[in-house]
Amino acid sequence: MPPPTSVGIRTLTGPEEFPEWLRAVSTGFFRGPAVSEEEMAARALDTETAPIQGAYDGGRCVGTFRTMPQSLTVPGGATLPACAVTAVTVSPTHRRRGLLTGMMTDALDAAEERGDACASLIAAEYPIYGRYGFGPAAWSAEWKVHVARAGLDPRYAGPADLGDGGRVELVGAAEFRALLPAVHERFRTGTQRQGTIDRGTKWWRLATGDLRFPDDGFTPPFHAVYRDADGQPQDGVSCTSDDVWQAKQPEQTVTVRDLFATTAAGEAALWRFVLAMDWVQRVRTGLRAPDDVLPRLLPDPRAARPVSHTGWLWIRPLDVPRMLAARTYPTAGALVLEVRDEDGYAGDRFKLEAEGPGAGARCAVTREDPELSLDVSELAALFLGDESAVRLAALGRPAAYRDGAVERAELLFRTARRPWCPDVF
């Protein structure tokens, strides 16, 4: 449904329009309409590279929508250009008028014209984005660890001597900000985990407290780096801690804000570093992959109690051949897919030909008879390897036109580790 004629959707054309737009964002996310000058300046840093749309009723902004360029890691470690969608709001007074549909259509049209392979977003509410072709491609989990029940050796003094020549050391915010971006890029593109995205300079400044504004809710974290036997940084962690005491006994909870690792040794060392801190009774893991190793690192895995498990990163295919040819596949095989897309961006019939582990893949439009028919949102769920084609088929989607097609899709698309997006955007 097109937006009403009294409300117009347009792209912001100058910095003078940003304050009113940002006030609408703040209102839409229930933070209130007041926005400080410092927050205005901080959030305006990347407006030149991030197209901003607003829906306006007269001079008042009643809907907001923003996109940013993003690099998405796919199975095998390759990256694809994605259109990251964020800051989506519609004022309660203007809901059900087609404003979101209008802004989304403009954004996807522009993404297709730019040559983005897909669009991405973090879905606040599950039912909204499936109607625009998005599907949940990576889930997120969080645990709370009761340290006393974890079964760790109380004599364990910490990771000063790990037995592999590596070490964990505390570093300041500036040093962490200088060292870790390159490590994160190796982690992101080194086949460690599909679903991760790139982090720009602004991300690291915000995460380390170098870019602040009043009432931003920032708690200064402490940072640690794992160095290998050669002294090279390979892994990093940022944590915050509360300061809770009961009857003069420490009841501290440490919350992990960020932990990523390019090595298994470093990942284990960083978790042990966090869990071995004095005074700490509980550790909250922050956003992790559902198959994170942490529970199995503990002598008693049940000490890590699930706090949440939710669909997190959603993607919307735009260029199916490019997407399917970019990732790797665990086995050789071919599959003809019929992709349904009511909006017309990605709908067609495609033949995927995978050459197996460590090899490439080809995908192109074909006129061969389809073996499997699925909605574009279901392809999104399969693409990073998280969803099971067999499970979807049990729900009546996708539809198989040839015996064994669903099982072949299961073998081709599933990955050894589940995708993970640790970031909010």
Summarize this, please?
Strand 3 and strand 4 (79-90) form a beta hairpin. The protein is of the alpha+beta class and 425 residues long. Helix content is 24%, strand content 32%.
Written account of the structure:
The structure is a single chain. By secondary structure, the chain is an alpha+beta fold. Helix content is 24%, strand content 32%. The chain is built from eleven helices and 19 strands. The strands form three sheets. It has a twelve-stranded mixed beta sheet, sandwiched between helices. Strands 17-16-15-18-19 form a five-stranded mixed beta sheet. Strands 10-11 form a two-stranded antiparallel ribbon. It is globular and about 70 Å long. The two termini are 28 Å apart. The mean pLDDT is 92.
Kindly state the number of beta strands: 19
Q: Which of globular, elongated, flat, extended, rod-shaped describes the shape?
A: globular
The helix-and-strand class reads alpha+beta
Which radius of gyration do the C-alpha atoms yield?
23 Å
Q: Which quaternary structure do these chains form?
A: single chain
* Strand content range: 25-35%
Termini separation comes to: 28 Å
Order of helices and strands: EHHEEEHEEEHHEEEEEHEHEHEEEEHHEH
- Tally of DSSP helical segments: 11
Largest sheet: 12 strands, mixed
Mean pLDDT: 92
Record the strand order, biggest sheet: 1-2-3-4-5-14-6-13-12-9-8-7
The low-confidence parts are: none
Approximate helicity band: 10-25%
